[in-house]
Amino acid sequence: MMDEDMRTQIEALRALGERTGGGLFWIADVSAMGSLTPQARRAAAAHEFADVRDVLRGSAVVGASFTTRVVATLLIRAVRSLEPHKIRPVAFVETEAEARVFLKAYRRHGAGVAAAP
After folding, report:
1. In whole angstroms, how far apart are CA 6 and each of 51, 74, 97, 114?
2. Which of 45, 62, 103, 109 is the most buried (most CB within 10 A)?
3. How far apart are CA 74 and CA 24, in angstroms?
């Protein structure tokens, strides 16, 4: 994934957050994603995108490779230990159906917002 791809996704999340007033639940299908370039990793971690992290209530990542899951899990744990309020629940799943089940359960029990019918 390239820097511009990451920035495009982040901008789309920002626009959705502004349009909806926040509280987004995100399903990211990364099954066709190759490796992240260093520039894309820097774009994802950039402080200028902190507002996007604030609108996410929970995320489910579909089809991540073993390496991606390990690296992301280590990063999430590191950030959670330093700034627990910055990390929302993230699940790594194999299918979109599993992602929807995770987010639906989280919305009902942990996110403090009503689940859609």
Report:
1. 15, 20, 24, 30
2. 103
3. 23
43 contacts 9 by C-beta, under 8 angstroms: no
Q: What pLDDT does residue 115 have?
A: 44
pLDDT given at position 88: 80
Contact 44, 6 (CB under 8 A): yes
Quick one: DSSP state of residue 104? H
Task: Name residues whose C-beta falls within 8 Å of residue 47's C-beta, 6 or more positions apart in sequence.
Answer: none
The domains of the chain, with CATH numbers, are: 3-109 (3.40.50)
Is 7 in contact with 46 (CB distance < 8 Å)?
no
Q: What is the spatial distance between Cα 62 and Cα 60, in angstroms, rounded to a whole number? A: 6
pLDDT digits (tens, 9 = 90+) for 48-105: 667 777 788 889 999 998 988 888 888 788 878 887 777 788 899 999 999 999 999 9
Q: And the tokens for 93?
A: 């799943």
What gap in Å lies between CA 18 and CA 107, rounded to an integer? 20
